[in-house]
Each structure stands twice: as C-alpha cells, then as structure tokens.
Amino acid sequence: MKSLWSVSLVTLLFCGCVSIKPSHLTPYNEVMSDAPNVTQYKPPANSHLFKATLDIRKHHLTGLLIIKSMDTLIKTQALQQVTTLAPSKTGSGGTPGRYRFVFMNEVGMTFFDLEVKADSFKVVSCFSSLNKKALMKILETDFRMLTWTGSPESTRIYRQEKTNNIIVSGNAGKYKTWRTYSPPGDTLYSISAKSTIADPVIISFSKYTKGFPGNIIIENPFIGMKLSLRKLTR
After folding, report:
1. Could you tell me whether strands 120-126 and 110-117 are parallel, antiparallel, or unpaired per DSSP bridges?
2. What global pTM score does this model have?
C-alpha cells in the first residue's frame, strides 16, 4: 500500500509539472486594435457528427460523437410556439448556452451522454466503467473549452518565436487559457486550458471547411487521454 501511494504521488507530481502553455513567447507589440479577429472557428450552431476514437492509456473505444446545440433546438421550438426566449447566461467557463455530447458505438450503445450549460454540468447517462467523478470533471473541461466563445479576461497577447503564431492568454471563468492563432490571426490552431493540475487540456484544430474544423484532437496529459474527432458530412 505504501509503495502504491508512492507511485501515485510521483505520478501526480510529474503530471502536475506538464506545461500546456505555449513556449517561446514575446509580447505582441502592435496596438490592441490589431489583435486577432477569429473568422475560422465557431462552436456548433446546431449539431455536428464526428467519427470518434477515445484512448485512455491502454483502453480504446471507437464510435460516433454528436455535438448538439440545445439552444438552437429550444429556439426552434419557441418560434413554433410564438414565444420569446430570454438570452442565455454566461457562467463559469464562459459556455454561451447549452450543449449535449453523445458518444456511442456503431450499433447505438451509448458510452456517455453529457450536458454542458453555462452554469452546470450534467451526466445524462454514462457507461459504468467510464462514470468516474474525476473523468467527468476532465470531460467537462474539454467540452467547455470546445464550445466557449466569450472574450477572455485579463487578456495578454504574444507572438511565438519561430512560428510567428499569435498567442492570446486570459481567464475564462475559472480556467486559465492560451489560444494559438495563425500569424494573421484569422485561424485558430489550438486551445490550451486548465483550472487545476488535474484537468489540463490541449485541443487542436485542422482541415477547416466553411469556418469549422474537419479534425479535432483533444488531449488530456494528466491521465493520458486522447479523443480524436473527424467530422462526417451529412
């Protein structure tokens, strides 16, 4: 038991030292009005379907991941009923509304169904072996950062040496974030964020089409988890 605790402590300390902050940064010297205006990434406005692969150390799952904006659904229903919705509130993490994330295999068995709102996170359903509090907290961080669109507080802007990419750091609710953009500032390459040493995440975007990435890779170095998403056309 003592040996197990020692190994766990070493692992915790090692993972806690993993930095997700982009390296080799210098202050952005242009005026603030020249700061990047992102035109090539927006969270799902309705729903998107992805081919998904989830790896957690030696465990491997494949299937389909659906990201659905519930705000769009609610607004459609409200228009049909000739009612007016109040604007969404922005809470911890800056998520501008309500999203559902459903991960299932090809025959329809649900691995997890999670709901992310501006001020709450709900496990609608989850496969028993995945339904662990620590894992759910990490997935909450992942999906909040994937759907967050607000302006960070305490913003600082940098250039990255060698790549010349623009890095925007700031706070999104309880999360410290770093966003990496192309040198012109019009394409989001990645988001790094964390609120504790246990939930750091790096989200990478590529193969944009009409303002949305065709490939998304979500990595959680603390637990060795990687979620790879490839958008499917419908």
Report:
1. antiparallel
2. 0.80
Planar angle of CA 21, 26, 32, nearest 5 degrees: 100
Within 8 A by CB and 6+ apart from 19, the residues are none
Q: What are phi and psi of 72, to 5 degrees?
A: -60, -45
Closest CA to 146 of 106, 177, 112, 170: 177
pLDDT tens for each residue of the chain, 234 residues long: 333 333 333 444 444 456 789 999 999 876 545 555 555 566 667 788 999 999 998 889 999 999 998 865 444 333 233 333 333 333 344 445 789 999 999 888 999 999 999 889 999 999 998 999 999 999 999 999 998 877 788 889 999 998 999 999 999 989 999 999 999 888 999 999 999 888 999 999 999 987 789 999 999 998 999 999 999 976
Q: Which CATH architecture has domain 12-231?
A: Clam (2.50)
Per-domain boundaries in the chain = 12-231
Q: Helix, strand or coil for residue 176?
A: strand
> Of 222, 127, 169, 185, nearest to 23 (Cα)?
169
